[in-house]
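Co-fold these.
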Amino acid sequence: MNGIEALYLPFAEFGFMRRAMAGAFALSLAAGPLGVFLILRRMSLMGDAMAHAILPGVAVGFLTAGLSITAMTIGGMVTGLVVALLAAAVSRLTPQREDASFAAFYLMSLGVGVLLISLRGGNMELIHVLFGSVLALDDAALMLVSSASSVTLLALAIIYRPLVLECLDPLFLRSESRAGPVVHAVFLMLLVLTLVSGFQVLGTLMVVGIMMLPAAAARFWAISVVGQMAIAAFGGAFSSYVGLLLSYYANVPASPAIILCAGIVYFLSVTFGLQGGLWQAARRAHARSLRLSRNRERDVLGKQ
Amino acid sequence: MKSDKNLAWQPSATRRRLLGWGGLSLGLAAMPARALTREPLPVVATFSILGDMVKEIGGERVQLTTIVGPNMDAHNYEPTPNDAKALLQAKVLVLNGLDFEPWLPRLVQASGFKGKQVLASQGVQVRRMSSEHAHEHHAHGKSEGKPGSAKEANGARGDVDPHAWQDLSNGKIYVQNITEGLSKADPRNAAYYETRANGYLTRMKTLDTEVRAAIASIPPEKRRVISSHDAFGYFGAAYGIEFIPISGLSNEAEASARDLAAIIQAAREADVGGIFIENMGNPALAQQVARETGILMGGTLYADALSPPDQPAATYLGMLSWNAGRLVYVLKQSTAAN
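Predicted complex below.
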């Protein structure tokens, strides 16, 4: 096996590798852009909170229908939406910020979820069992995650302009139109849809990581929201591909490998990014001090 | 309960009800004391299989509380206050050991349990994970969201295989240890425990012979199956069936892409009779392997916990008999197909 074959042979030989890559690509395309908006809204930790918030719904789905992806996803969607919309409503109707109200509601939801699971088995292990694994995708799981991603991308395209305004200048949007709350609600629904379908199919770490890390990295390469969204989507897909190869050759679990690859991409972006990266900042600082000293020299010379 | 002896390992109505109680009470400390001349001996067993053994040996003279009930995973149990309460009132605690119950030492300490601890696996020939697998299975934390906690979960557990009860000759050692422990804690009933244990051991011997005879009908080169986690090492060694586990000793270990690829490759090259899932845990990976290799899904085996009382593997002997029957059935089908 030569170097180039090594990059595609695992995917040619094993169906589970192809499925894992297809699922991860579908997820990356929708999750990256959503992550960019979460960062704009300063709600980067929402994905993690949502992983816990959907627990009661998933548990109810599991307790009534067994290990059925559909039942657990519907349950998770319902609780996720309830939590997200209640939190958003509180932040709109009261002075409390969305992160605080979200924390309050997700913790209540988590409490209910753990309670339900304990009633059934007294066993936290169920939480682990309830969520998927990137190496275990079947047709139904692939369908679920790719349809969720398609819906998310289409809807994002439709609400794009008011959503950007809502994130950057909500007061202006409020003065111009009454679309604000609607756009906000649609955005939260898309978020819940992507997160929940991803949790069921790929596992919590995988979804939250693919949503936030490439989006955080993208900020160092592009200023425009569109640019960041494209880079985030591409970065997530790239990390998934490299992570899967790493899991295959280095014999490590797949989803942590993918997330660590995305983490390395983030580190490189922080260091070398052209929009505010460390290296660039250092170079600018150096250039500025050079310029200043040159100016001083000129001033001194001029006075003479 | 004495009449049960003749019914082999089929759960009787009484025992079913008892098992139901065990499942429900799960540490609801005390079942109401029965109308006996003496108070029954309060005993706590850590999980369903040990609970069943204690019930067989102690009969109505022990009052049993099982901490981890049917279909629940003892590897990752979280004790409840009721468990501590039951322990505090108990005179005997029956545990498997071999790091199967990592949560137990803290529970014992917290509860202030002062009775006798009976290590059921005392004297068992301990099996270690085969070296080729030992390095392959990486620990994975309880919650995927916390990678920091990942390594401690499995790493500290080492590579001792705790599933010793899957071999009936170890089961006999378990029964002897439990009988001895009960007799020491309750010498007045020693003869009673002894008689019941002897009856139980006879049934175990019969089952052992039956299982061996059934498996002998399968040609040795056909006795290879895939299981979803590494829980059948003792069973395989005792009865000559090769189990290829998808994930490690614990259900929570996440397989790497290499592990999965290696299993699929092995299955393509060698003759594998079936893929089995277990009563706990997510069957998704096993289904993935089945899809990829076209090997038959063989159904459910019971490894770490018994089934609820209305299902076939509700007792220890019932579980072994079900597992052996299932394996032989599937292997025969695949042998006939080739």
